[in-house]
Design a protein that fits this description.
Strand order of the largest sheet: 2-1-3-4
Number of strands: 4
């Protein structure tokens, strides 16, 4: 074999080997590109899922906050209406006709009395609860309690109603206190409504 043929054979073998190496490199690059594309696709899907979940979580959070704000506004409106109703109720109770007012106070005294020997303190402006009225209530107490209620010479600024006092123990049954207690109970109910609906 001549030198030229030997060189051609070596160059042919080298070219064939180079082509083989290039083909392997192309296949390896294609395989790696396919793996990379699959990973990229997986990452894109994961990112999309995470973004959708984050958006859904944010939407839920915004809706919950909006519902709570609406409920708070609704509660505030209910309380404002409640305040107005109780203000009117206080006015109406203080301005009841005398016989209805005395019937109410009689009922309240009979409910509040502990022993029957308490003093009855009334408002400074009170004219419907007098000694004769207290005697009437004592008649109703007879049999269930002592019947020694007496009208106190002391008067206080309590609006309507009365205070029963025995020694240092006082039971405030003024209209303002009764309405205030009822008002607080209703506010608690309204607040319970707010938190049970949210």
């Amino acid at each position: 074999m001549e030198a030229e043929q030997v060189i051609e054979k070596i160059l042919g073998d080298a070219n064939a080997e180079a082509e083989k190496i290039q083909q392997q490199a192309r296949e390896k690059v294609a395989a790696e590109q396919s793996t990379f594309d699959k990973q990229l696709d997986d990452y894109a899907k994961q990112t999309q899922t995470l973004a959708e979940k984050a958006a859904k979580d944010e939407k839920s959070h915004v809706l919950a906050a909006a519902r709570m704000e609406i409920a708070k506004d609704y509660l505030a409106e209910k309380i404002a209406i409640l305040d107005e109703v109780f203000e009117k109720a206080a006015h109406q109770l203080q301005n009841l006709p005398d016989d209805e007012y005395r019937a109410l106070v009689t009922h309240l005294i009979l409910e509040a009395v502990e022993t029957g020997d308490e003093e009855v303190i009334v408002d400074r402006q009170e004219s419907r609860i007098d000694a004769a009225f207290i005697e009437h209530v004592n008649d109703k107490l007879a049999g269930s309690h002592q019947s020694n209620l007496r009208l106190s010479g002391e008067k206080q600024d309590i609006g309507g109603g009365f205070i029963l006092r025995r020694g240092k123990i006082k039971t405030n049954v003024s209209i303002d206190v009764l309405l205030d207690q009822a008002h607080k109970e209703l506010e608690i109910e309204l607040a319970r409504e707010l938190f049970s609906d949210s």
